[in-house]
Amino acid sequence: MPLSAIMKKGRSYTAATTNEIMFKGLDRRLAEFLLTEAERTGSDTIRMTHEQIAQHISSAREAVARMLKSFSEDGLVELKRGAITLRDKNRLIRLK
Asked: What is the pTM for the complete model shown?
């Protein structure tokens, strides 16, 4: 693949990531990530650290932890050490 094609692909990815960060709130990005990860793994339990999730959605670990706590208090997810279990997928879908 020519270098120009690689650079163009990289710019497209960067633009898409920037748009997602700018125009989707953390709650939407997190809900979308959790649903996508559950579908990818075939499990409603996601075994990732808050730091790993934060890196995937371009956010701070602290912000992800606060949002997950809020999701937990609202009954969307159940939090256990090293695992997040999706409890209300329909409401998560409506968030994204």
From this structure: 0.76
